[in-house]
Structure formats: structure tokens, C-alpha cells
């Protein structure tokens, strides 16, 4: 068998796919964080909790009403997005005049509340969710066996990230959004309902996290802590990429997933820390982040 | 960046004019300090000493954290790294090398300070939200290190750490003796922080909090000041963690987990950012809550989250800040 750096090729390829899959989650989550930050100037610490709620919504839809995986892909983000809308309207919107750090503290508190409530209701052992039949099994690509579900996750994430980029960069709505990010007061003077735009932006970012949660439900066991573990890594991804660019967060997300996957082949013990190590290097070389704008 | 901290007596100029002796205490603060000392002395007669020691360690941790957020305006979300590594190193040196109590705690503090020097040097490159995210991420790296490193004992942690005799001959196996040591460490740390804040160095820190570009234009190397404050804060957090490790005889992954970082933010926010006695009262409330709500499981987390939300929305000055505003005193 072909060996690269004393590791079999099959191990490289399978970790490559796994890395891309994790990268898909990093990309979707950091994209949502970047959109929310651009508009609201808040770092949404509750993003991991929203991701977790997306997975739980999927599980609940299946176990309580018998709604399958594919409808959940639409329904769960809508449900969680609506919850996000309510949160923004009732709580988060009160903070816009304050320092950014209060937004961080508030959403951290919200994450604790949400995760605590789910832990009370469902325990922390995790609930199983089977992937739909159509996506089970693996496909022989000739040089490797590709698990279908992993390919599906990467594909969906790419499509969604691209669609988000098109909406923000190429449509009229996106242009309004970008204008409001630059100067909300001026856009409001042109007759745009900026507070509504802000609410919808938050809901949109949260829905992205929830969609990632739906995709994650069949892979990870659905449990209340699934988001808080991931969000710390995503914060490092955000620091590496900088939050200035949509495409930048997507590229950074996938790239770091890959780096993490490949580290797993070479030095498994270091795979948990490698993203943070990359962050340190980026901070030393380019403190603003790879795609960050100058302040 | 300007996290609004409490200047209850109005303008900073008026604050500066307030009669503060060589200690940096105003008369009311001195009285409040004496009351605190009396409470610390009397409390173990009424309450369980181990619980009180837990509170004192948490209070020192929160005071150290407050030095950054309250006086420099830097929100670190990674202070668990210094607290936890302090706990590990104290536990390890006490158990493996059989160091005496004061030396193992100092080793914990030195570890916190050194780690603070490394992580702080990286983190101060960015401000505001990014600073918080970077400290969180760096602390997560420390957490991964502790999971993998052999000396931490992984999931088991370092257990059955002996309370080695103080100075090699004063036994600490009795909880009252350990309590006295913990109380002295806390008070020393508290006074040190107070002294730092009221020194010329402390005034520069506060000027950085209020307006960093201005401080730079006045010729201060603000990065150096921030780094020194970070190292001091991290070192004291390490001492707090080390003391806790000796009190409970255990150092675990929970001490380095990000939830511990969240805890210390909560204690300080609840007590009052940038107040002298705020972190102490916040630590008391949070630890009491953890203690008495423990049977209700995850409701502790829910309550803590709710307190965060309420504090940020309606109660930004915290307990002591509000009390000070009510009494028109700077506490």
C-alpha cells in the first residue's frame, strides 16, 4: 500500500474527508458569527447553544411528530431562527448602545440558561438519531470508500455558504445589509427599517447554526453540551480568519477542518490543539486575522 | 474600549481628591475592610470551614480577575488556565516533591504568572471582543494540554494531595489551621491588588481603560502596562488555584475548563466590576448558590445564566456598585 510519511494513504484520505466534514461545521458556524457581528456588533456566545437546539429540534421533530430528516433541514432552522428572533427582540436589542463586551456576557448567560434547561429535560448522555436511509452506506470512488453522509454534509455546507455569499454580495437585500453595517443611521434615513433588518440578520445567523445542528444530529449524539465544545474552536477559527469577510470565514473554516484532520493522522494527541496553535501563529504574523480589515 | 465601571462618587477628579491615606483606603473603605476581616475571623465559628475556604479562594481569583476587567478594561475569558495550572502545579509539587505548603502554593502562583506572560503577550495584540475570544481559545489550548499531559492524571486529576506542613513544621491537617492560612493568603492578595490599583502604576492602568490612544500619546507604553497587569492577575489566579488544590486535596480538569473562566466573570460582574469589595461579595453569592443549589443539578447553570442576563440588562454596577451608589460611597 502507498505510504506517505509512514502513514497509509487510506488513513490520509479518510481523515481528509473527516476534516472537510468538521470544516463544514466550522465554516457554517463562523459564517453565522461573522454575519451577526457585522450587523449587531455582538459576538454571539449563544451560537453553540443554537447549534445544539438545531440538533434537538431535529430529534424532537422525528420522535414527537414523526417528521423525517429532509423536512427537518428546513423546519429546524426556521424554528430556531424564530426563537432567535424573539431573543433579539426581547433581550439582545437592549444592548446596542452599550460596550460590545456586554453582548458577549449576555449571550454567554443565554447559552448557560438554554444548555441548562436542555440538560434538565434530556440529561447529558446523548440521544441517538439515525441518518436517513438514502444517505447511509459508502460509495466506492475507485481510490477510496467515501461515507455518503460525510459527502452530503460537505456538499450541503458548500451550497449554503455559497448561497449566503451570493445573497450578501450580489442581491439588493445584501447591498442594503452591507450598507446598514457601514452606517445604520444613514440607511435608516433612506427609509429602511433597520431594527427589523437587524432582527432578521440575527435570526438568519442563528438559523445557519441550527442548520449545522441538523447536519450534525446523525453524526454526533444529540446532547446539550454538543455546542459548547464546538464553539470554543469556532471562536479560534473566527480569530484566525478575521470577521471582515464572508468568503474568508468559509475558506478559513474548511481549511482549519482539513488541517485538524491531517494532524489526526500525523500526531493524534495534538489534533485537539492544532487549531489553537494556528491561531497563535496567525496572531504573531498577522494580528488582524487572515481576512481581517484594518481597524 | 470602555466597560462602564463604577465611579460612584462622580467625577474622577473628585475621586482623586478623596482622602486616601498611604494605604490607598478612604475612611469608609478602611471601615469596610475591618468589617470584612472580622467576618472572616468569625465566620468559621458559624459556617463549615471548607466551604468558607472555597469562597476565599474564589474571592482571590475574582479580585485578580477584577484587576484586569475593572481597572484595565480587559475582559479575559481564559482565566481558568491560570487558576487550573496553578492548582495542578501546587498539587503536583506537594504530592511528588513533598514541597511544604507555602512553597507549593508559590510554585502554583509562579506557574500562573509565567503562563500569563506567554498568553498575555499573545492576547494583548488585539482589543475588545477579540481579546476575550483569544484568551478563551488560548485557555482551551491549555485545557487540551492538561487532558493529554501525563502529570495531570487526565480524567482522574491529581488526587489525595497532602496538606504538607507550613514552613515544614506547622501542620495544616486541621481545617482551622488551613483556614487561617487561606485567610492570610486571601487578605495579602486583596491588599496587594488594592495597593497596585492605587499606585501610580494603577492610575496609568485606569487611564488605559478610559482612553488608550490618549495614554499612548502621553508617552506610556500601554502594551507593557497591560502585559504587567495581565501577569500580576494571572499569578494571583495561580495562587488562588494552588490554595484551592491544597484545601480540597485535588486538582482536576474542571479547574482549567472554560466554565471556571465563566464562573469568575460571573462573580465579578455580580459583585460589581471595578469595585474593591465587589468580587469578594460576588464570590460569596456564587459559591453559596453552587453549594445550596447543588441538589438541583443543572438548575445551577440555569440560575447562573439568568444572573448573567439580569446583571447585564438591569444591574450593570453589581451588588457593591449599587450599594455604593445608594450610600454615595466608593466601595
Your description of this structure?
The complex is a heterodimer of chains A (295) and B (331). By secondary structure, chain A is mostly helical. Chain A has a single domain (3-285), classed as ABC transporter involved in vitamin B12 uptake, BtuC (Orthogonal Bundle). Chain A is 71% helix and 3% strand. Chain A has helices at residues 9-40, 47-65, 69-90, 100-122, 148-170, 172-182, 184-189, 194-216, 226-241, 246-266, 274-285, and strands at 3-4, 7-8, 138-140, 145-147. In chain A, a hairpin with a 4-residue loop joins strand 3 and strand 4. In chain B, helix 3 (49-69) crosses helix 12 and helix 11 (258-271) runs parallel beside helix 14. Chain B is mostly helical. Chain B has a single domain (12-327), classed as ABC transporter involved in vitamin B12 uptake, BtuC. The longest helix of chain B is centred in the C-terminal third of the chain and has 27 residues, at 222-248. Chain B contains 14 helices and no strands. The two termini of chain B are 23 Å apart. At the A-B interface, helix 4, helix 9 and helix 11 of A face helix 6, helix 11 and helix 13 of B.
Low-confidence stretches of chain B: 1-18
Total individual domains of chain A:
1
Distance between the termini of chain A: 51 Å
* Structure classification of chain B: mainly alpha
- Are there runs of chain A of 5+ residues with pLDDT below 50, and where? none
Our estimate of the beta-strand percent of chain B is under 5%
Structural class designation of chain A = mainly alpha
> What's the β-strand tally of chain A?
4
Q: What share of the residues of chain A does DSSP label as strand, in percent?
A: under 5%
Shape of chain B: globular
Question: Which architecture of chain A would the CATH scheme give at its second level?
Answer: Orthogonal Bundle
Determine the CATH topology of chain A: ABC transporter involved in vitamin B12 uptake, BtuC
**Total helix count of chain A?**
11
Helix-residue proportion of chain A: over 70%
Instruction: Give the radius of gyration of chain A.
Output: 19 Å
Amino acid at each position: 500500500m502507498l505510504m506517505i510519511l509512514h502513514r497509509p494513504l487510506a488513513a490520509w484520505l479518510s481523515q481528509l474527508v473527516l476534516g472537510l466534514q468538521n470544516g463544514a461545521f466550522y465554516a457554517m458556524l463562523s459564517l453565522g458569527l461573522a454575519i451577526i457581528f457585522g450587523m449587531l456588533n455582538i459576538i454571539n456566545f449563544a451560537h453553540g447553544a443554537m447549534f445544539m437546539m438545531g440538533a434537538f429540534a431535529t430529534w424532537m421533530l422525528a420522535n414527537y411528530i414523526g417528521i423525517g430528516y429532509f423536512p427537518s433541514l428546513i423546519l429546524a432552522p426556521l424554528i430556531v431562527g424564530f426563537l432567535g428572533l424573539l431573543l433579539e427582540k426581547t433581550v439582545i436589542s437592549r444592548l446596542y448602545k452599550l460596550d460590545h463586551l456586554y453582548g458577549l456576557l449576555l449571550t454567554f448567560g443565554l447559552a448557560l440558561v438554554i444548555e441548562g434547561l436542555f440538560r434538565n429535560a434530556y440529561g447529558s448522555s446523548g440521544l441517538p438519531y439515525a441518518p436517513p436511509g438514502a444517505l447511509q452506506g459508502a460509495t466506492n470512488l475507485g481510490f477510496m470508500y467515501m461515507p455518503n453522509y460525510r459527502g452530503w454534509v460537505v456538499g450541503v455546507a458548500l451550497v449554503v455558504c455559497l448561497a449566503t455569499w451570493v445573497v450578501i454580495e450580489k442581491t439588493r437585500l445584501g447591498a442594503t445589509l452591507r450598507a446598514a453595517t457601514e452606517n445604520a443611521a444613514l440607511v435608516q434615513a433612506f427609509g429602511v427599517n433597520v431594527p427589523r433588518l437587524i432582527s432578521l440578520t440575527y435570526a438568519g445567523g442563528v438559523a445557519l447554526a441550527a442548520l449545522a445542528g441538523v447536519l450534525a444530529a446523525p453524526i454526533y449524539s444529540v446532547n446539550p453540551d454538543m455546542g459548547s465544545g464546538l464553539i470554543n474552536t469556532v471562536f479560534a477559527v473566527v480569530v484566525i480568519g478575521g470577521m471582515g469577510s464572508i468568503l474568508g470565514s468559509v475558506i478559513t473554516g474548511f481549511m482549519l477542518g482539513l488541517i485538524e484532520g491531517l494532524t489526526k493522522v500525523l500526531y493524534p494527541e495534538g489534533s485537539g490543539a492544532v487549531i489553537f496553535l494556528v491561531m497563535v501563529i496567525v496572531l504573531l504574523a498577522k494580528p488582524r486575522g487572515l481576512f481581517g480589515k484594518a481597524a | 474600549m470602555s466597560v462602564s465601571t463604577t465611579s460612584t462618587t462622580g467625577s474622577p477628579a473628585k475621586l482623586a481628591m478623596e482622602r486616601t491615606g498611604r494605604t490607598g483606603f478612604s475612611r469608609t473603605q478602611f471601615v469596610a475592610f475591618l468589617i470584612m476581616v472580622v467576618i472572616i475571623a468569625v465566620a468559621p465559628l458559624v459556617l463549615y470551614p471548607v466551604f468558607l475556604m472555597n469562597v476565599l479562594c474564589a474571592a482571590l481569583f475574582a479580585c485578580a480577575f477584577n484587576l484586569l476587567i475593572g481597572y484595565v478594561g480587559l475582559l479575559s475569558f481564559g482565566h481558568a488556565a491560570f487558576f487550573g495550572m496553578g492548582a495542578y502545579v501546587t498539587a503536583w509539587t506537594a504530592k511528588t516533591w513533598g514541597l511544604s505548603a507555602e512553597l507549593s502554593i508559590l510554585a502554583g502562583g509562579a506557574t500562573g504568572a509565567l503562563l500569563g506572560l506567554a498568553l498575555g503577550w499573545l492576547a494583548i495584540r488585539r482589543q475588545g471582543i477579540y481579546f476575550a475570544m483569544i484568551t478563551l481559545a488560548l485557555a482551551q489550548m491549555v485545557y487540551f494540554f492538561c487532558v493529554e499531559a501525563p502529570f495531570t492524571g487526565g480524567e482522574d486529576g491529581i488526587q489525595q494531595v497532602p496538606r504538607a506542613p507550613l514552613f515544614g513544621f506547622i501542620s495544616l491537617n486541621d481545617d482551622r489551621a488551613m483556614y487561617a492560612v487561606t485567610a492570610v493568603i486571601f487578605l495579602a492578595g486583596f491588599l496587594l491588588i488594592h495597593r497596585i490599583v492605587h499606585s501610580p502604576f494603577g492610575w496609568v492602568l485606569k487611564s488605559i481603560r478610559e482612553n488608550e490612544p490618549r495614554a499612548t500619546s502621553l508617552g506610556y507604553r500601554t502594551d507593557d502596562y497591560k502585559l504587567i497587569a495581565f501577569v500580576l492577575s494571572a499569578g494571583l489566579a495561580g495562587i488562588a488555584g494552588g490554595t484551592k488544590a491544597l484545601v480540597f486535596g485535588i486538582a482536576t480538569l474542571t479547574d482549567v475548563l472554560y466554565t471556571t473562566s465563566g464562573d469568575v466573570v460571573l462573580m465579578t460582574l455580580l459583585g460589581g466590576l471595578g469595585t474593591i469589595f465587589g468580587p469578594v461579595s460576588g464570590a460569596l453569592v456564587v459559591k453559596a448558590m453552587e453549594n445550596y443549589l447543588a441538589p438541583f443539578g443543572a438548575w445551577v447553570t440555569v440560575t447562573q445564566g439568568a444572573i448573567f442576563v439580569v446583571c447585564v440588562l438591569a444591574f450593570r454596577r453589581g451588588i457593591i456598585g449599587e450599594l455604593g451608589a445608594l450610600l454615595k460611597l466608593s466601595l
